[in-house]
Write a structure and sequence with these properties.
Length: 89
């Protein structure tokens, strides 16, 4: 069980490992405008999903270095979601 506490609110989440790299996923509180509560995200910079995602984003500006991190949303039964991130270069 993963425990996340922010502003006095405690959220308990199931343990999940990233299916792409096997690392434990970590809780993250997205910006309020997303409408999401706490989600689980793979923060591994060596995750193959993350490293290969930069080429998968359609219609992005050339040279923008955007990619995606693998995440799970507990509010929809831990179904996967993609979270935009800046890929290292």
């Amino acid at each position: 069980m993963v425990i996340h506490e922010y502003a006095g609110i405690v959220t308990e989440l199931e343990d999940h490992d990233c299916p792409h790299c096997g690392k434990p996923m970590e809780p993250w509180l997205p910006p309020p405008e997303t409408g999401w509560d706490v989600i689980l995200i793979c923060n591994s910079n060596s995750c193959p999903f993350y490293l290969g995602s930069e080429e998968e984003i359609a219609h992005k500006r050339e040279g923008s270095h955007l990619g995606c991190r693998y995440a799970l949303n507990p509010q929809n039964g831990y179904k996967p979601v993609n979270v935009l991130a800046v890929c290292p270069h």
